[in-house]
Amino acid sequence: MATKRILLEVGTGNDWHGGSYTKAAVRAVEDAIHHSSLVLLKTLDLDPSKMLVDVKIGVQQPEKVDPAAVKAVLPHGQITVEVVKGGLNAANTGPDDISIIAVAAITVHLDLA
Description:
This protein has a single domain (4-110), classed as CATH 3.30.1330.20. The chain is built from three helices and five strands. The chain has helices at residues 21-33, 39-43, 67-72; strands at 3-15, 52-59, 78-85, 88-94, 97-111. The chain is elongated. One of its GO terms (molecular function) is GTP binding. Keywords: GTP-binding, Nucleotide-binding. InterPro entries: CHP02058 (IPR011719), Tubulin/FtsZ-like_C (IPR037103).
């Protein structure tokens, strides 16, 4: 299958006080998908389940992100989630209170043959 990239979108998300890397990652994905609209799917009568959706999340502690929770946010496609070291932890009101900031990059590919 010869696929073509039809979308690259980025987003940021945070959890100011809860300490949840998953919550920050989910918010980053939600931010990214709210910046885009794949109108060509309807225009060209394409099946959204055929999309290949690759999600890359950057956070300071990748092992603390639940990839299944991130995947659940996306409504269509064959989804893969990769979590890598990135993002930012920012000091908040004290040493045990950090703000977690996640970055998401979403690419979508389709077979347009």
